[in-house]
Design a protein that fits this description.
Radius of gyration: 19 Å
Structural class: mainly alpha
Strand content: under 5%
Number of helices: 9
Helix content: 40-55%
Number of domains: 2
Length: about 240
């Protein structure tokens, strides 16, 4: 799309676009691009939220008024969450005695896998997991390996897909039981209570500390996961 933008601009047709991977847009330098911190495959945010989607489109179109270039602007809002069903969090304890990220994350995954399968059965097999080409076990092991080695992921687009699958897996596991639940509370549980939430916070801090990659930190954690005043109940 970036190359197509240059082709159209040479024909005096102004272009603008939306980018889901900021590093790609920064490298290709299309004439105008709006970066959004949304999951892959959702350049306008979540389904059935036309007001939010219109704001994204308007922001992309506003770039046509810019006279400088190339333009790479960051959209200031995170996409709202997507409720999967009406269910409370599963009764899993996220406490662990493991000292490595491999131990911590894999133990947590083992606790959540049965609940994920229950939730998927209740949804007739539907799942939001599948953006990445890797299995959830490989994703968790890969994240843990990077954390234990104190290194940033080498393949950023693959990393983004991996964490989107990991977050979807957790939310679907956390909302496996039937009943009423607070969707925001589920995400607060993910961000502030789970080992995955702690792991993503470490990745966020690593990206934030790198001037060349600091914008990527916004992909790792949404803004409401960065407020230290936010709290959630500790599982029994």
């Amino acid at each position: 799309m970036s190359a197509l933008g240059y082709f159209l601009e040479r024909a005096d047709i102004m272009t603008t676009g939306i980018s889901l991977v900021r590093e790609n847009a920064a490298s290709l330098q299309p004439p105008r691009s709006l970066w959004v911190s949304f999951p892959l495959g959702r350049p306008l945010g979540v389904p059935n939220d036309p007001a939010f989607q219109h704001r994204v489109i308007e922001s992309a179109l506003d770039l046509l008024n810019r006279t400088d270039g190339p333009v790479l602007a960051d959209y200031p809002e995170d996409a709202p969450g997507v409720p999967l069903d009406n269910s409370p969090a599963c009764p899993v304890s996220f406490r662990t005695d493991h000292t490595t990220w491999q131990g911590r994350l894999n133990a947590e995954l083992a606790s959540l896998e049965p609940w994920y399968q229950i939730g998927r059965q209740r949804r007739d097999g539907r799942t939001l997991v599948g953006v990445s080409t890797s299995s959830i076990r490989d994703i968790i092991s890969g994240l843990a390996a990077d954390l234990d080695a104190a290194r940033l992921p080498a393949d950023l687009p693959a990393f983004k897909a991996a964490i989107e699958d990991a977050k979807a897996f957790y939310v679907e596991a956390l909302t496996a039981q039937p009943g009423e639940y607070d969707h925001r509370q589920t995400y607060l549980t993910l961000w502030y209570t789970t080992e995955l939430g702690a792991a993503l916070r470490v990745f966020y801090e690593q990206f934030e500390a790198d001037p060349k990659l600091s914008a990527f930190a916004q992909i790792v954690l949404p803004r409401d996961a960065l407020d230290d005043k936010q709290t959630t109940e500790t599982p029994p």
